[in-house]
Amino acid sequence: MEKIKVQDSVGTILIHDMTQIIPGVVKGPRFRKGHVIKEEDIPVLLSMGKEHIFVWDQTPGLIHENEAAQRLARAAAGSGLLLDEPKEGKVSFTADHDGLLYTSVDGILALNTLENVILSTLHNHYPVKKGDIVAGTRVVPLMIDESVIIEAERIARTFTDPLLEVRPLKHTKVGIVTTGSEVFHGRIQDKFGPVLRAKVENWGSEVIAHALANDDVDFIQRSIREQLNQGAEMILVSGGMSVDPDDVTPTAIKEMGADLITYGAPVLPGAMFLLAYIGDVPIMGLPGCVMYSKTTAFDLIAPRLMTGERLTRMDIVKLGSGGLCLNCPVCIYPHCSFGK
């Protein structure tokens, strides 16, 4: 810390906020801690009664917190993000569009293990809206050795994917097959279809076909093939997902040559969820809970598929940590622990 005349302070850095008081007009910080003094600031400082100020020594090899935060942010940020101007040493990351936040858990850990480096984010695969703040970064001291930031930049480059990005949900053509003899024969009204259609449209996609199918393997398979021929890029098969002998939806999907990823997910509700692929088209078998529970395994998995991600069994297995929904009286997902 050094005390110098205001007239000699251009290019130096303030170590504290400086308040300006103009009676009846303003009272508040005129210059913030970390502000780099410019020539035009000198008359203002003098008008505030500041003949001398305290600044940081200009030690070679040190960089200011604002520059450090900007460099950290640029190193971590991928597509779909906007970086705010530094404020009190912090840079915020804002979503440039709706989508899912993808984070590199290992990359964020590696950066935060560096002394005096901070990168805080929302959880991986968090649904975000345009304008949401999804992360923030800064360093602890006002001045930091540049070598620390250089190392952070190097670490970020070692990862194939960005440490942070927001991926948009692609417009997807979706087919729905509602199974069940009781629905097919009109004994009860189909309640599954409207729920699924509402979710699909909320994600910015469209339902191009909706079929009702009897509890018959061949019938279900024909319905799926017809929707594939119509150009469906995702197919949702609802109902008939339990282990009861007359629930044949899993059998129908598996026996039509689909690449089965999983039948079962460590998520409650949604344990009887099924994911398979026919070529690049994901087919999901949806248990009954999707019809009456506000949020299920389906809500955690379908948006990721709509970003273009191809999921593996391990991706589904990892959902177990945080996979318990608390069934709150008023659902506040995603602002809760579910799926985190």
From TrEMBL:
A family per Pfam: MoCF_biosynth
MoaB/Mog domain boundaries: 175-307
Claim: Magnesium is one of the keywords in the record: yes
Gene3D superfamilies xrefs: MoaB/Mog-like domain
GO molecular function, one term: metal ion binding
Cofactor: Mg(2+)
Keywords associated with the record: Magnesium, Metal-binding, Molybdenum, Molybdenum cofactor biosynthesis, Transferase
Reactions this protein catalyses: adenylyl-molybdopterin + molybdate = Mo-molybdopterin + AMP + H(+)
SUPFAM superfamilies on file: Molybdenum cofactor biosynthesis proteins
Record-given protein name: Molybdopterin molybdenumtransferase
